[in-house]
Amino acid sequence: xxxxxxxxxxxxxxxxxxxxxxxxxxxxxxxxxxxxxxxxxxxxxxxxxxxxxxxxxxxxxxxxxxxxxxxxxxxxxxxxxxxxxxxxxxxxxxxxxxxxxxxxxxxxxxxxxxxxxxxxxxxxxxxxxxxxxxxxxxxxxxxxxxxxxxxxxxxxxxxxxxxxxxxxxxxxxxxxxxxxxxxxxxxxxxxxxxxxxxxxxxxxxxxxxxxxxxxxxxxxxxxxxxxxxxxxxxxxxxxxxxxxxxxxxxxxxxxxxxxxxxxxxxxxxxxxxxxxxxxxxxxxxxxxxxxxxxxxxxxxxxxxxxxxxxxxxxxxxxxxxxxxxxxxxxxxxxxxxxxxxxxxxxxxxxxxxxxxxxxxxxxxxxxxxxxxxxxxxxxxxxxxxxxxxxxxxxxxxxxxxxxxxxxxxxxxxxxxxxxxxxxxxxxxxxxxxxxxxxxxxxxxxxxxxxxxxxxxxxxxxxxxxxxxxxxxxxxxxxxxxxxxxxxxxxxxxxxxxxxxxxxxxxxxxxxxxxxxxxxxxxxxxxxxxxxxxxxxxxxxxxxxxxxxxxxxxxxxxxxxxxxxxxxxxxxxxxxxxxxxxxxxxxxxxxxxxxxxxxxxxxxxxxxxxxxxxxxxxxxxxxxxxxxxxxxxxxxxxxxxxxxxxxxxxxxxxxxxxxxxxxxxxxxxxxxxxxxxxxxxxxxxxxxxxxxxxxxxxxxxxxxxxxxxxxxxxxxxxxxxxxxxxxxxxxxxxxxxxxxxxxxxxxxxxxxxxxxxxxxxxxxxxxxxxxxxxxxxxxxxxxxxxxxxxxxxxxxxxxxxxxxxxxxxxxxxxxxxxxxxxxxxxxxxxxxxxxx
Length: 835
What we know:
Elements: E1 3-10, E2 15-16, E3 23-24, H1 27-37, E4 46-47, E5 56-57, H2 60-70, H3 72-76, E6 81-88, H4 98-107, H5 114-135, H6 140-171, H7 180-186, H8 191-196, H9 202-212, E7 219-225, E8 231-236, H10 239-247, H11 250-260, E9 268-269, H12 276-280, E10 290-300, E11 313-321, H13 326-329, E12 336-342, H14 343-348, H15 351-367, E13 370-374, E14 377-381, E15 383-389, H16 392-399, H17 435-447, H18 453-456, H19 480-502, H20 508-517, H21 546-560, H22 569-584, E16 589-590, H23 594-611, H24 618-622, H25 626-633, H26 642-658, H27 664-679, E17 691-693, E18 696-699, H28 705-715, E19 725-729, E20 731-734, E21 737-740, E22 744-750, E23 754-766, E24 769-783, E25 788-800, E26 807-811, E27 814-816, E28 819-822
Parallel strand pairs: 10-15
Antiparallel strand pairs: 1-6, 2-3, 4-5, 7-8, 8-12, 9-16, 10-11, 11-12, 13-14, 17-20, 18-19, 19-23, 20-21, 22-23, 22-26, 23-24, 24-25, 25-28, 27-28
Helix pairs in contact: 5-27, 19-21, 19-22, 22-23, 23-25
């Protein structure tokens, strides 16, 4: 029998749900399905594919409004699409009856029972409560009021609606008493109550989430009792259960697999796996190893004054999976809570008492592994603790080093004494701590009680030393945020400003006036620095967050550079500090520049001492170890505390909203786990945000001729008509990177580290593919006095697609004396994608 391919016009469009694969043949029913089934799902989003629209919406309501505004005809008339079918030559083309098309879809609803409906309704109500409670951080009392009101409204509707149905059935001559099932259903007044009875109390909601939504419950551990007989407790979230729920999500597991398959680089340092410590570790080479990066810190959840200070101070332990891709690890949802304890218990009890359940789980994860089920396959994954990030005080306290930074041996990387800081500005001048030396120090402390703890700078053994593979001298990386952005940078900036002020080169009032008048770029606006108080002239500290200090550090030349003569000795100290920051803050570093970095740091410290001989701090000393630590750990920015500390803000807002401080660690841990439970209902656990702002539709002919040629050339489309519609927007977020008209992108590098820029002029979407058009910008020279590239605009058009740029940070343009400049966040060096 011969076959032929023919084109048949279907009289309707098929709407397929991307969440559950349900098929609908009417747009109104598709909207209803989304509203009923998925509206309360975490990270809900839907893309409009009518007439190649491709706009994305995060709520069903906004999507419905868009349909009624832009595609109302789709609600009134079926869309016609062509589909390829195979037919016999002897058979005529017949229109497929709608009933046949709907048959399979309808069969799935035949025989549905009441219990199935109630089960679905319970889940939707539970997700509604979690959405309401955790997305908006509502206190329990507010949530209870809303839920009880909702229950009353549903009961009222059910009772009256059923009465209306019974009235019309009776009026039509239908005898309900002859239909026992229907009569029982319409007279059942407990349907809504049976739904809410499963989630009325905290206990019931918690139980429901554990049984149906993979909630990992925090576990209370008792340390002892206080003088009043009350228990001293802390909350531990079982790390094994958290890892299991995370890695059994298919998209998270695939991200983990992709990073494991990447081979370490030999020339570039782009991640922890490129460092020497990973290559030397006992689990190097195991493709199934899961790297865990731990973080600890103490913080106030409120802002108390006077005697109330430290009353509600907590110590927290978070962790993240190191094998995820970098654009995923930066999301707070992938920084997991491990342990919460009142800070006062750290002084009353030992770290080992508090960390014992975590240490026991880490032992099991390494010796027995973690069994996960992904796509029907059971896989055993070994997990190991790779690093512990913390500020210097927390790191020294946990690792067992002295916590005094004003005398004795103040460094956990070497044996230097505080009084020798100024005379040792190179790492070759100090004795580096090693595993063997550290074990000798611990043995000496145990055997001789007469040895002072200040002798070696070691006061106790780290509790994580119980892990066979853990080395306290190798698993505590330095923290860029605390050492550099909150230590070195404020010291350098304040000392330079003080010198310039007292030399009458530029006054503090002039600096603040320049800051007021300065037009800060869009990408820096969120971190606008604070005004400098008069105390800056006396103290070596800057107010504001680390991000604000970093912003001031970068834009300072545009504020005061024109006041300062070329070659000014104090300004040269600032510029040398910028050179160091460009390298150590980079996410990708060439190995061959590490020796040059050592020379830069030595020269900077020597110059700083000669210009400011009265000031030298431990954080300046820590810089001498950075070159070798970068070789060991990889780029230190990958392990810094800044992103971890972003997690603190969630707990602070939650504590403020709930106003429940009776058992603070339990309240916060429980609410965090409920939020994580709600987030895991999302099918997009990696949350690759995609959205546009200011999008509009334009015909192809309205584009400039150069852009038309670029679109046709890149898409290889030959059938483009002048009236074909394209989407044009002012900003685009895709794959967690935001592109805005007016921003600058680095599109290429010449001579390894000289960037070529492109100013974004137009962002458009053609047949579902995004294209970014801009004008080329060439750096004429690097103006060292301003630590910025001087630009020259070109007429040449450049086309890139999202992800083709060499650096994902968009950059702002700054103008001084009609000259355009761009200053970088860090030195840009191209390598493979980091993991």
